[in-house]
Amino acid sequence: MTTSALTTSALTTSPKLSSSVPTGLWLAGRSVEASSGAWFDVLNPATGEVLASVADANAIDVLSALAVASAAQARWAATPPRTRGEILHRAWELVTERAEEFALLMTLEMGKPLSESRGEVAYGAEFLRWFAEEAVRIGGRTATAPSGNGRILVTKEPVGPCLAVTPWNFPLAMGTRKIGPALAAGCTVIVKPAEDTPLTMLLLAQVFAEAGLPEGVLSVVPGLDSAGIVGALMADPRLRKVSFTGSTRVGKILIAQSATHVLRTSMELGGNAPFIVFDDADLDKAVDGALAAKMRNGGQACTAANRFLVHNGVREEFTATLAARLGALRTGPGWESGTELGPIINQTQLSRIAQLVDEAVVAGATVRTGAKAVAGDGFFYAPTVLDEVPADARIRTEEIFGPVAVIEGFDTEAQAIEAANSTEFGLAAYFFTRDLDRSLRVASALESGMVGVNRGVISDPAAPFGGVKSSGLGSEGGSEGIEEYLTTKYIALTS
Ligand code: ADP
Q1: How close is the Cα of 63 to the center of ligand 1, in Å?
Q2: Cα-to-centroid distance, 349 and ligand 1 (Å)
Q3: DSSP letters along 170-185, please?
Q4: Which of 18, 105, 134, 239 is the most buried (most CB within 10 A)?
Q5: Are the C-beta atoms of residues 105 and 200 closer than 8 Å to each other?
Q6: Are 38 and 54 in contact (CB under 8 A)?
Q7: Which string of DSSP letters, residue by residue, matches 94-144?
Q8: Half-sphere exposure of residue 85, counting CA atoms within 13 Å on the CB side?
Q9: Residue (of 163, 181, 179, 180) closest to 237 by Cα position
Q10: Residues lining ligand 1, judged by CB closer than 6 Å?
Q11: pTM of the predicted structure, to 2 decimals
């Protein structure tokens, strides 16, 4: 890996973890040790130092969580929707009141700058408020049978105990957008957070207890042996649904495992988002959009722009401006004021990004800025722009998950669409144009679950988030989000 002469600013001492954050497993309404007595370390990615030790769940622990979830299921399903909604609403209020504590915690365990952590608290908490409102709007329908022979009554019921497996990149929001609709629908939930960032979910579980959520309705089981503990749950017939956000590789394993007991599945998997700049685009807006789509979370988002497809007529101007803007970003620990780019989550991811870039450069890519790991403590990579990247370079087909922008040119709209769709993924896509006809035409031609037109950020708790092709199944958020946790029952009535 190449390292730069740049170093992260002589690190100011990291703020300490608040003693109010639970570090045990959250089981049956309290924080407990793992049955094995094992703990694992969670690192601060800005310093590489241990932030906390967290209880390490094993199969026995997660099956205890399933036993309590299963025991609590019928009562929670029978709890009036208004009461379920009020508990969710109270949890939203408590998270909002404690926004600074949640934000600092995410910055410490995940690395994102505090300003972005604050944004995630607002966004993540909003799923609780949104689904508090949806809890009382679960509908059904009734019809007279066409034969005239009786009535068709359609009702919605909670699917039952759910498993939520979440990634490290948005430690709060990836949990709340599963927990919110599940609780609103009347399902109990077990969350298996990512091993890099379990603390935010543990704090959220404590907040839910304060909000009045009955014991056993929500458990949080961090653990290093993710395959073993998730596998134990997937093999148990009491589990009725899995909702996963993470890599396509692991998603496929869970889809295969879900066949054993025919589980409902929601899958938010990898992306390879194209970001298209047409020659009639407002270039200033396109560069602003590119910064947002590429650099939010340091590029560590499944919706992150992965390939910049730029019309050859504006390619040099766009690339030069983007490189100047990215190159000027201030890299450092997320808690320092003025930090615009935090660390990469861990050494493995940092090495992966460096390798993708190094391979492209060796193959002939032009470095417009960056292309270096940052020397010093923690796991930092300089913001990078590459042009003239050979077509067969891995960086053009794999999800980069880091602060690296790869530029490709095109001449016609048809070429841009073909390039955008030439991937097995289909999560997010972005394009910039001033032409309304083209906007509608291109939005419909893109094989993607979500399309941003003249904007680089699309996530919204009120909108259905989800992908097509290898990017996933189902939607999270919006009025669609709660459907993932409901089953349809048909009652044939004759009177
Ligand atoms: P990422 O590449 O973003 O880390 P992963 O798909 O590896 O995504 O991880 C997402 C979540 O899936 C994490 O909570 C992780 O612990 C969990 N996980 C990883 N491997 C497995 C597995 N084999 N079975 C079940 N869960 C897994």
Answers
A1: 19
A2: 14
A3: STTHHHHHHHHHHHHH
A4: 105
A5: yes
A6: no
A7: HHHHTHHHHHHHHHHHH---HHHHHHHHHHHHHHHHHHHHHGGG---EEEE
A8: 13
A9: 163
A10: 165-167, 192, 194-195, 226-227, 230, 246-247, 250, 253
A11: 0.96
Query: What b-and-e string marks burial along 286-319, b requiring 16 or more CB atoms within 10 Å of the CB?
Result: bbebbbbbbbbbbbbbbbbbbbbbbbeebbeebb
Segment-wise mean pLDDT, segments of 10 residues, the chain, 495 residues: 41 81 97 98 97 98 98 98 98 98 98 98 98 97 95 98 98 98 98 98 98 98 98 98 98 98 98 98 98 97 97 98 97 96 97 98 97 93 97 94 98 98 97 98 98 97 98 97 98 91
Catalytic positions: 268, 302
Name the DSSP class of 394: G
Is residue 132 within 8 Å of residue 81, measured between CB atoms?
Answer: no
Spatial CA neighbour of 176 closest among 387, 382, 461? 461
Instruction: State the residue for tokens 């992260």.
Output: 8
Nearest CA to ligand 1 atom 24: 227
Length of the chain: 495
